[in-house]
Amino acid sequence: MCKSGTQCQKYRQFSPKFRICKREVDGLPQDNEQKSILDGMLIGTYNQSMDAKGRLSFPAKLREALGERFIVTKGIDGCLFVYSLEDFEKKAEKIRTLPMAKARALQRSFMAWACEAEPDKQGRILIPQSLREAAALDKEIVVAGVCDRCEIWDKKRWDEICRSSEDELSQALEGLDF
Fold first, then answer.
1. Where does the chain show beta strands of DSSP type E?
2. Half-sphere exposure of 84 (CA within 13 A, CB side)
3. Strands 11-13 and 19-21
4. DSSP of 39-56, one letter per residue?
């Protein structure tokens, strides 16, 4: 119960002993302003199927974070990258500032393959044939959220990458003191 004597719908624990209403603590954001460290971060692994027309049901949680429209482009290691329009614009601006000798390869692989995706009412996006071929996508697909982007993988290739990267992961985690 709040100090005002009204029953609060949402409590937040600030110490193990006390349940304090957020509205009673100065400096905290209101419910609709509350931010999480994960806000805007793309995380999770989702197994999906792609139909014969190249339509893929894109995970709702990732769609929410990316926005109504987003960019799909050729990635590295045999996957596709998916960026919000805002993040893609930032990457494109960085590429534009590079000297032509350094930017050519990035422009050709990152920019030339890019296409805008807008989910339909069922949450599906269309992956163009050229991108499906570039990533060797078949029917079974994995969509993975990896911080600032999503990656779209053929399921078999994803499984191979996950198995082969376990040693690299162990070394990286040791370096981060995990």
1. 11-13, 19-21, 42-49, 55-57, 70-74, 80-84, 115-117, 124-126, 140-147, 149-154
2. 17
3. antiparallel
4. TT-EEEEEEEEB-TT-EE
Q: What angle do CA 8, 10, 13 make, to 5 degrees?
A: 110
What are the pLDDT digits (tens) for 8-42?
Answer: 443 333 333 333 333 333 343 434 434 344 566 88
Q: Which tokens hold the place of 139?
A: 């029917």
Query: Do 81 and 73 form a contact (C-beta atoms < 8 A)?
Result: yes
Domains in the chain (CATH in brackets) are 1-28 (no CATH), 42-175 (3.40.1550.20)
pLDDT at 3 over 70: no
- Is-contact 80 74, C-beta < 8 A? yes
Instruction: Please name which of 167, 93, 79, 87 lies closest in space to residue 127, comparing C-alpha atoms.
Output: 79
Residue 107 corresponds to which tokens in the numbers above? 């422009």
Q: Residue written as tokens 């949450």?
A: 123
φ, ψ at 96 (rounded to 5°):
-60, -30
